[in-house]
Design goal:
Bound molecules: flavin-adenine dinucleotide
Order of helices and strands: HHHHHHEHEEEEEEEHEEHHHH
CATH topology of the largest domain: Butyryl-CoA Dehydrogenase, subunit A, domain 3
Helix content: 40-55%
CATH class of the largest domain: Mainly Alpha
Shape: globular
Structural class: alpha+beta
Oligomer: single chain
Distance between the termini: 29 Å
Strand content: 5-15%
Length: 383
Amino acid sequence: MDFELNQEQKMWQRIVREFCESEVKPHAAEVDETGQIHWDAIRKMKDIGLNSLEVPEALGGTEVDTISIVIAMEELGRACGSTALSLAAHNGLGCAPIKRWGTPAQHEQWFPSLISGEVLGALALTEPNAGSDLLNGVQTFARRAGDEWVIDGSKAWITNAGIAPVITVLCRTDKDAGARGFSMLLVDTKSPGLTIHPPEKKMGLKGSPTHMLSLDGVRVPADAVLGEVGRGFHQTMATLDNGRIGIGALSIGLAQAAFEEGVKYAQQRRAFGKPISEHQAIQWMIADAALEIDAARLLVYRSAWLKDQGKDFTKQAAMGKLMATEVAERVCKNAIQIHGSYGYSREFPVERIYRDQRLMSIGEGTSEIQRMVIARRVLQEFS
Ligand SMILES: Cc1cc2nc3c(=O)[nH]c(=O)nc-3n(C[C@H](O)[C@H](O)[C@H](O)COP(=O)(O)OP(=O)(O)OC[C@H]3O[C@@H](n4cnc5c(N)ncnc54)[C@H](O)[C@@H]3O)c2cc1C
């Protein structure tokens, strides 16, 4: 057993941290206030490969191991929740399925623009009436018409949709085939019939655009199927397993940022004749945060390690995501508590980090769904 990052991973961590400290974190408050992506940082990310983590080197990307993806997501989360979520969606939901199931022609068609730094990728699973229960709820239907697919339906809460050149859309393609009745289709965002509605007004992650989509007779060529016809649901589950490692890492980054702010403030603020960091109640919050962040980080890194070893990681990814997102909630809440009234003010970053982290126990599978995934696996192990 080895708890150390290797030399390459340590170097990567240093490079990403320095980049995030200088190019991402200083703009986090402005990104939140204006609801605008900081494109300058996204363009510069190209140089170190943060926007091509899932794209093979042969296709111009920086494909790295899963531990290195976790390192990158943690550092991005520590710097800016909005930027981190858009990058998590771009790499894990936009690029990763295209890498895994795309044909060479699809790689060549989409990767050059996806890694250009001018756009970000997107995956559309959720619908107005289908989130946790995609199997029963998805109504977006694609029917075959000659050498095309014609798509009708709507999707909701799609990260990066308005800034993506292509959106992978989960469609039902056979109404009677249950889990085998779904396919993923690559939809060019210039397609007639596709409407990308204005960004949702959200509690946090305001600089990560989230859109509703309407698909009215959108036509895509037969070869726009990503992977196999009928395997879309299976591909979705595999994509989410993977994405959960990224959201776990992002949550650790958010928790770490709030924790650092809390400790710094506790050492400066004085009450009853001494720094509040010398009061035991504050020390307990600091100790619990240090403990829980460490435990969550170990779980998330283990799931990434399992994936890199080619082992099953579904249960461990769900455990890591569940733990990391719930730890982020507690740590951010206590970081505000440590700040007192100032924690409730926009002048300090902890209120933004608290709002940003709130999504993490909802997106890519709610905490309840993570518990379902874990329980199912545990019960199988005991049967
Ligand atoms: C900022 C943001 C970005 C997003 N980005 C994307 C994206 O890029 N692509 C995409 O496809 N989607 C995206 N989503 C959607 C997100 O993944 C879904 O909102 C999420 O999966 C939950 O689905 P739902 O909102 O429909 O909740 P529902 O499924 O309606 O659940 C509502 C509540 O019921 C609970 N529940 C449901 N079933 C059970 C059960 N069996 N047992 C116990 N409790 C249950 C849930 O845990 C939850 O608490 C995004 C959402 C947000 C807010």
